[in-house]
Design a protein that fits this description.
The complex is a heterodimer.
Chain A (H helix, E strand, L loop, with lengths): L1 H10 L9 H23 L16 H8 L13 H23 L1 H11 L1 H6 L4 H27 L5 H4 L3 H8 L4 H23 L7 H15 L14
Helix pairs in contact in A: 1-7, 4-5, 5-7, 9-10, 9-11, 10-11
Chain B lengths: L12 H4 L6 H21 L2 H27 L7 H18 L5 H20 L7 H21 L12 E2 L3 E3 L2 E4 L5 H23 L2 H11 L1 H6 L4 H28 L1 E2 L1 H4 L2 H14 L4 H25 L4 H22 L3 H15 L5
Antiparallel strand pairs in B: 1-4, 2-3
The chains are: A mainly alpha, B mainly alpha.
């Protein structure tokens, strides 16, 4: 992962320092195409199952424990073991990321780079190092997410478009805020299921495809910086 | 003589505002138009029309549309596929509702309807910018595709959920439908491309285009010097969507004939047109053509080389295509953010001074 991060940084993003964010975004889409094609070339495009020893199936224990809570026709909560593992892993990951970004020296340098490339350079932060670090970190987090997702629903390369949904989550929560990403994820995740359940049936169903984006759109109109983002100040 | 003008010899405003200031360019442009109109229709066959020329012309319109929005006005949009779908479905509803009206009028009306939809989705651009706006336009993309999939009124309650273009004639010649000749398809697309390109060129060098460019370069500064951002941004969205709607209408009716919205106008289409604009050159009408031609030709060329000449299996070539497109996108963004059009411009600068560069 680190070697790959280094390669991405070395061959692509070092040349794009100081460009507008949208150019970087397009470059990452190009990168996604590239990797998808490479992956298909190397491993074929059929769906694979991923077994990494994570527990599978429903948890009998919780089902048994909770079945006593309701009446006779209540059989308890059915919770997938994998989902529980995913929750714990996500919680640990988020906590360590927050700690890293807020308290470590590298984390602070990272946030400085996010604010302003040039200013960060001029106070002696090595942009190259930070970018390799950031790509490694992002790759690591994505790796965990990919393993979780792959264990749940099989590995294939069309996964890449699912990741697009992370963008409205990020916007809703606001950039530069890790708690924002969590709250945004909860709002969108819970919101789209509730919306599909309550209103979706009336208007044709399958609203999950666009709900996240439309919600983010409406939300951004009223609060362009997102829930927890820093206020955007513009100067001429 | 091959190339001329190595200084400023203009004596009138007309000469100054010419699209092709060099005489050689002007002649070449007219020669190209003449070949396109007078030679190609007589030698075209089905394979060339369906595999290369018709998609090229249609994508060129879409790329011009997106280039106006992204290249000239600086508003990144990932909703192109959705807006093309609006054009296609508007075309379908108009064609089935008013079968006696000429399809040319239908195409233009479909463009108009898309312009209204596009302006509506452009409203948030007044509050949100850049990267945020790109994600917001994804909302348009996914919402519109979903809408056309779920609301049966749009596809006239057909059982398959597809829309099929009925046969239509212009001046007694079939242009839409299964019995259309290759040259008729080609000609109707060519006429629309020519008109769209002329309109786009003249809009972008006039007052409106200058306002767009001011907004692109820095919207707060533009507002201070008296550009109305509401008007400029919404007009960019409307004009851009108008072109994209026309291309969507032609894509559905002339090129494909039958369309299933998720497949034909999905998010991949938005990315494809965006790549055309980037590879061709942001903020250049010529670049739109270059990018569209490049990305239409690339898969065909790869297929011819890989499958027919080298005998590789089809799926490997298809995957290789993704790799090459991805690599090219990154290459262009790094080496030449202004795309193929910039290469062309540099070549022309060199040619002007040739053979005495100093």
């Amino acid at each position: 992962m680190v070697a790959f991060a280094w390669a991405v940084q070395k061959f692509v993003f070092r040349h794009l320092v100081g460009q507008e964010p949208i150019i970087l975004f397009m470059a990452t889409i190009g990168l996604a195409y590239f990797l998808e094609g490479m992956g298909d070339l190397m491993w074929g495009s059929d769906i694979k199952t991923l077994k990494v020893g994570l527990p599978q199936g429903g948890s009998r224990w919780i089902e048994d424990m909770t079945s006593g809570l309701g009446g006779d026709d209540f059989y308890g909560f059915f919770i997938d073991k994998l989902d529980m593992v995913a929750t714990v892993v996500a919680a640990i990951l988020v906590m360590s990321l927050i700690a890293f970004a807020q308290y470590s020296k590298q984390g602070r340098a990272m946030r400085a780079v996010a604010d302003d490339h040039q200013a960060a350079l001029s106070v002696g932060i090595s942009l190259n190092f930070i970018w390799v670090l950031v790509w490694s970190l992002a790759g690591l987090v994505a790796l965990v997410a990919g393993v979780m997702w792959g264990a749940k629903s099989g590995v294939q390369f069309s996964l890449s478009l699912i990741a697009l949904k992370a963008l409205p989550v990020l916007m809703l929560g606001g950039f530069t805020s890790i708690p924002g990403a969590i709250v945004g994820g909860l709002i969108i995740g819970v919101g789209e299921k509730l919306f599909e359940y309550t209103i979706g049936g009336m208007i044709g169903g399958a609203t999950e495809n666009w709900f996240a984006y439309v919600l983010a759109l409406i939300f951004l109109v009223f609060r362009p910086q997102g829930l927890f983002g820093e206020k955007i100040i513009e100067r001429v | 003589m091959f190339y001329r003008e190595a200084g400023d010899f203009k004596t009138s405003y007309e000469a100054d505002s010419q699209t092709f200031p060099i005489k050689f360019d002007r002649y070449r442009f007219w020669a190209m138009i003449a070949v396109a109109y007078l030679v190609i229709p007589f030698i075209i066959n089905d394979y060339w029309a369906n595999a290369i020329l018709v998609p090229f012309l249609i994508y060129a319109i879409a790329a011009i549309g997106l280039n106006i929005l992204t290249g000239y006005c600086g508003q990144v949009s990932l909703g192109t596929g959705g807006f093309m779908a609006v054009g296609a479905y508007a075309m379908y509803k108009l064609m089935t509702a008013f079968p006696d009206v000429s399809v040319v009028i239908h195409v233009i009306l479909a463009g108009g309807i898309t312009a209204v939809v596009g302006a509506a989705f452009g409203l948030p651009s007044l509050r949100i910018k850049g990267f945020y706006l790109a994600v917001a336009t994804l909302a348009a993309q996914f919402f519109l595709v979903w809408l056309f999939n779920k609301v049966a009124w749009f596809y006239n309650y057909s059982a398959s959920g597809q829309i099929n273009a009925p046969e239509r004639f212009v001046g007694g010649v079939a242009v839409i439908g299964p019995n259309t000749d290759a040259w008729a398809k080609y000609m109707i697309c060519l006429v629309f491309v020519t008109v769209c390109a002329i309109i786009a060129r003249n809009l972008t060098r006039g007052t409106m285009g200058r306002k767009w460019m001011a907004i692109r370069d820095m919207d707060i500064a533009a507002e201070i010097i008296g550009v109305n951002p509401l008007q400029a941004k919404l007009s960019a969205f409307a004009v851009s969507s108008f072109f994209i709607g026309i291309s969507g209408a032609l894509f559905f009716s002339v090129y494909l004939g039958a369309v299933e919205v998720g497949e034909a106008f999905g998010i991949q289409k938005s990315f494809l047109v965006l790549f055309m604009v980037i590879i061709g050159g942001l903020g250049s009408i010529f670049g739109s053509f270059a990018g569209a031609g490049f990305l239409v030709l690339l898969p065909v060329a790869l297929k011819v080389i890989g499958v027919d000449l080298l005998g590789w299996p089809t799926d490997i070539v298809a995957h290789l295509q993704l790799v090459i497109i991805g690599a090219l996108i990154m290459f262009f963004l790094i080496k030449e953010p202004h795309g193929l059009a910039q290469f062309w411009r540099i070549a022309k600068e060199k040619l002007r001074l040739w053979p005495f560069p100093y």
